[in-house]
Amino acid sequence: MGRASALLALFGALVVYYETNGHWWQAGLWWDVAFIACVLMPAVFGLVLVGVPWWSSRRLFPAGIACVVLAVILELVNADVFANFARLGATTLLGWWFLSFFETVSWVVLVAVIIPWIDIYSVWRGPTKQIVEHHEQVFSVLSFAFPVPGEHAAANLGVPDLLFFALFLGAASRFDLRVFATWVGLVAGLGLTIAATVYFDLSGLPALPAITLGFLAPNADLLWRELRSGRVAQQ
Prior knowledge:
Mean pLDDT: 90
Shape: globular
Structural class: mainly alpha
Number of strands: 2
Number of domains: 1
Strand order of the largest sheet: 1-2
Distance between the termini: 46 Å
Largest sheet: 2 strands, antiparallel
């Protein structure tokens, strides 16, 4: 009950910001970057942190699909703020459901090693680049927005970034890794990605490399110990 109340309170505070952000202060560019990276992103992904003990629920898949349907409906009726959070709910629940297929932490590590390269290709040469440059409306539907205070602009993360954020945080909980340190690493990685995008004046950067590092770095010793013990057991 306490966890659900905390989730609702944080969600309510975020909705207030999202509905009123255009009337907030107007600061310089780097103040905006700092606010998104150090305040807004931690608050948004705080929802995932609060809910992470539910990663093992048996209702994840139907709940995730329900959130997908809800996001589509809300988008159609122009309820953009709630559609935004419905996408976060869908990707989080489906990310945790996907985690149920991982029998050992070595599977998670394998995914963590592979997906950054796929993301890098997609952003620089592949479908993500095409969507961002030529189908901006599609990208807005398939991403989560972090509105800039005092402006009608936002930083965006694609839905795969949200899904793997939830998967890695859920994996930290499932395999007895450092859950809070992992969350800090994941959020910090995303914040640095946003900052680098602004600093180098780019249309976008792949976020999955930073998300992957945010998972691997805080748990490197535990992961190495687990992988090593698995190899010894096989021998």
